[in-house]
Amino acid sequence: MDFDLNDDQRLIKDSVDRLVADRYGFEQRRAVLTSLDGWSREMWTQMAELGLLGVSLDETVGGFGGGPVETMLIAEAFGRGLVVEPYFATVVLGANLIRHAGTPFQRSDYLTQVAQGRLLLAFAHHEREARYDLSNVQTTAHAHGGTWYVDGAKSLVLHGDCADRLVVSARTETGIGLFVVDAGKTTRRGYVTQDGMRAAEIGFDHVEAEAVLTEDGLAVIHQVVDAAIAFLCAEAVGGMAEMHASTVDYLKTRKQFGRVIGEFQVLQHRAVDMLVNLEQARSMALYATMMADEPDGELRGAAISAAKVQVNRSGRAIGQEAIQLHGGIAMTMEYKVGHYFKRMSMIEKLFGDTDSHLARVAAAPSLL
Amino acid sequence: MDLSFTPEERAFRDELREVFRTEIPDRIRRKLRSGLHPSRDEQVETQQILNARGLAVPHWPVEWGGRDWSPVQIYLYQDELQSASVPYPLPFNCAMVGPVIAEFGSQAQKERYLARCANLDDWWCQGFSEPGAGSDLASLRTRATLVDGAWVINGQKAWTTLGQYADWIFVLARTDAVAKKQEGISFILVDMKTPGITLRPIQTIDGGVEVNEVFFDDVVVPGENLVGQVNKGWDYAKFLLGNERTGIARIGISKARLKRVRELAALEPVGGIRMLDDPRFRERLAQVEIELKALEMTQLRMVAQERGLARGKPNPMSSVLKIKGSELQQATTELMLDVVGPYVAPFFPEAELEGRNEPGIGPEDAATAAPMYFNMRKVSIYGGSNEIQRNILAKAVLGF
Ligand SMILES: Cc1cc2nc3c(=O)[nH]c(=O)nc-3n(C[C@H](O)[C@H](O)[C@H](O)COP(=O)(O)OP(=O)(O)OC[C@H]3O[C@@H](n4cnc5c(N)ncnc54)[C@H](O)[C@@H]3O)c2cc1C
User: Fold this and answer.
1) Is the domain of A358 the same as that of A238?
2) Can you tell me the distance from the alpha carbon of A155 to that of A94, in angstroms, rounded to the nearest whole number?
3) CA distances from A96 to A89, A91, A200, A294 (A)
4) By three-state DSSP, how is residue B198 classified?
5) A167, A124 in Cβ contact below 8 A?
6) % helix, strand, coil for chain B, step of 5
7) Helix runs in chain B, H state only
8) A80, A159, B92, B385: which could join B124 in a potential S-S bond, CB 3.0 to 4.6 Å?
9) If pLDDT is split at 50, 70 and 90, which confidence band does B244 have?
């Protein structure tokens, strides 16, 4: 086991850290949030130039050929910067689905475009009744004369508002399939989410589709979603680390009763408890990264769920404490801590909440 | 010891329940139940309905509209009001400035302000906190200087809740710069239209605009707007803060929210069953209900003790209610978040939610679950943070 980064990994970390430090100041981000798309195409181009969009893609499509560790480094930096570009939707979900399940042509065509920053993807999977059950798919796909058509409705599609193409899960006669559709042929209702990101409700009315897989899609969905959860865990750790650092700084500078409030031992202990929570979450985010490529779905699932439970719990505790220890200032949109708190609260409910992941761990053989 | 309510108390409660549920427009109560905030007009409308029935300021002295109710009756009133999702009579008027004027104001001030205050003809806001004076309120720096019989106020207040709606602000200002800090503060009533006052609205993390910064730049206020004696403002502020001894637990509000949590959990499917039947969720709900029941009994015990206490003198044990009550208010919003699940994500400004034609996204009330959770983080910060409440208990009750 080696917790140190190799040279390539350090390179990626340095470049993404620098990007976030230079380009993701609080005011810069605020300006981007209020733009029409809610994110910056210029930033997207930079990410492409730095190789971040193709980090986990094959070199044959212009990627970097990296693995979960490289992805984790990016996620954590994005968590620290509260990055709002559609990286998760396009790269972590969309491109990964095609990478795992696509035809050779789809892989080379779509993934090359993704790596170059010319194609935005989104994963249209969740449906109103599904809650956190990935197998609950009512949307259907039928073939007529060699062409597939998708009918149904998808909900909470992250960055579905701006995607060029959607990877859609749909039920076929033989199972759950995955299809690519031109997003322009669907009906979309886009909206802002609590954390300043974007999402959409999407309707499919006999929309022409290109088959990726016509059955057995569920295993791929699980695999990609598990890796996506590992990404979210690392992103959350980035945000938690910021909340913690900001709190410690504040305790060292805010004065009340003629002294810095950090002199009150009760507050020191609270900041220490935040640290303990942060370290536990960081460890489990690493564990999730380590297990993200595990081919045995059951082993991988239990590990990923365990990480999500820890990250959710740590994140809630750290977020609430960060606000409490800052006092009123953290209740305002003008101060950064509240934004991390909101992002963390949304991550908590993304791809499984604490209960649903706890159930998955409890049903599996012991982790230890 | 008789732990049940008397038949008279029960009849009293039933009568109030009937009034609150029939006289307050359903559209307003429905809004609150869904986690939305009443508009200014709705707050005024509600308070005027209550006031017309003697139900806006029952705890005030009788000559100014009070009812001389027993502490148990006051408790039942608060509980029924909150459980029925009726907007609470504006605390700045009814629980704060009104009682201070009634207790310490001049006869002229009482006549001028109290009836309008009870009827919400004047909307008051609270100008206590400043950027540098939060928990350490006594270190406040806004100055008031007497010039030719008038007060000239300079400085800045922060966190002024709903100041954008206010006609008047009651201000704590420093009137003696050399005295011990608690002994140089005065309590002054200021018309918000006075030249020199500017208001900067501040957006809170739930997306609403609930607080403001208020700047005072050579604001000239008639000398007669001083309440009580000069440099005694700190005593009045303590009276004000100690006044709401039991209402602060907001038990009725938590009850109403838990009821809503149950209703929504009964509609939400999870893994083939209703969320309400999921043992993991159900036990968590039960746990919060247990603690709320315990707090309700604690509150009743304190209400019973009230009788022996002097009015306006803070009971340090009320800090127990503040700590646990705020934690439980927060816990109920977390349960709501859990019920709504993935549908906490879509954000819509409140104005858009009211009377919108498009169907919402996800379960009923989904759109208010996250904002409510975010917003309720405030209840352990304001009104004396929970850390300050613990300091009070450690000192005043445990004798450290
Ligand atoms: C939504 C909202 C509405 C408000 N409305 C109003 C209003 O209408 N009018 C008004 O006047 N004020 C209002 N307030 C202000 C509120 O009363 C203050 O926020 C509160 O007093 C805390 O002060 P602060 O925010 O400056 O935090 P600070 O006092 O700076 O505290 C920061 C942290 O340090 C802790 N701390 C401070 N001192 C100690 C100590 N001695 N021991 C241990 N811990 C300590 C606090 O508990 C907190 O966790 C409002 C606040 C909010 C958030």
Assistant:
1) yes
2) 16
3) 10, 7, 20, 15
4) strand
5) yes
6) 55, 15, 30
7) 7-23, 26-33, 40-52, 71-83, 91, 98-104, 107-109, 115-118, 233-243, 251-265, 279-306, 318-340, 350-353, 366-375, 386-392
8) B92
9) low
Is B108 within a domain?
A: no
Q: What is the CA radius of gyration of chain A?
A: 21
On whether the CB atoms of residues B245 and B314 are closer than 8 A, the answer is: yes
**A265 and A348 inside one domain:** yes
Q: Give ipTM to 2 decimals.
A: 0.97
CB contacts, 8 Å: A255 with chain B: 132
Give the tokens for residue A224: 């990609």
Cβ pair B346:A327 closer than 8 A? no
Give CA B112 to chain center in angstroms: 24
Give the nearest chain A residue to B284 (CA atoms). A355
> Do A225 and A327 share a domain, yes or no?
yes
Q: What is the DSSP code (8-state) at residue A345?
A: H
Q: Are residues A195 and A296 in the same domain?
A: no
Query: Distance between CA B265 and CA A76 in Å, rounded?
Result: 34
Calpha distance B131→B140 (Å, rounded) = 9
Q: In percent, how much of chain A has pLDDT > 70?
A: 100
Tokens of A107: 């892989």
Question: Which positions of B are annotated as active-site residues?
Answer: 244
Contact status, residue A313 vs residue A355, Cβ threshold 8 Å: no
Beta strands A255-256; B124-127: pairing state: unpaired
Interchain CB distance below 8 Å, B337 and A349: yes
Is the CB of A368 inside a 6 Å radius of any atom of ligand 1?
no
Residues recorded for chain B: 400
**Option in A133, A191, A338 nearest B347 (CB):** A191
Residue B134 Cα to ligand 1 midpoint, Å, equals 4
The answer for residues whose C-beta is within 8 angstroms of residue B71's C-beta and 6 or more apart is B246, B303, B304, B306, B307
Rounded to 10 degrees, the C-alpha dihedral B69/B72/B73/B76 comes to 160
Q: Under a CB-based contact definition with an 8 Å cutoff, are residues A97 and A212 in contact?
A: yes
- Asked if residue A163 and residue A43 are part of one domain, the reply reads no
In a domain, B147, yes or no: yes
What is the C-alpha separation between B356 and B350, in angstroms, rounded? 10
What is the β-pairing status of strands A121-124 and B197-203? unpaired
List pLDDT tens digits, range A188-232: 999 999 999 999 999 999 999 999 999 999 999 999 999 999 999
Closest chain A residue by Cα to residue B327? A320
Residue B93 CB–ligand 1 contact under 6 Å: no
**pLDDT at site B242:** 77
Please state the rounded mean pLDDT for residues B112-127.
98
Rounded Cα distance, A165 and B99, in Å: 63
* Tens of pLDDT, residues B303-343: 888 766 666 567 888 899 999 999 999 999 999 999 999 99
Q: Of B213, B205, B371, whose CA–CA distance to A333 is shortest?
A: B205
Contacts of residue A230, Cβ cutoff 8 Å, sequence gap at least 6: A68, A71, A72, A285, A288, A289, A291, A292, A304, A307
| pLDDT (mean) for B173-182 | 96
How far, in Å, CA of A307 to CA of B333, rounded? 24
The answer on B134 and B68 residing in a single domain is no
Q: DSSP letters along B308-347, please?
A: TSPTT---TTHHHHHHHHHHHHHHHHHHHHHHHGGGG-B-
**Residue A328 CA, closest ligand 1 atom number:** 25
Question: Where are the strands (E) in A55-193, listed by range?
Answer: 121-124, 140-144, 147-158, 165-172, 175-182, 187-192
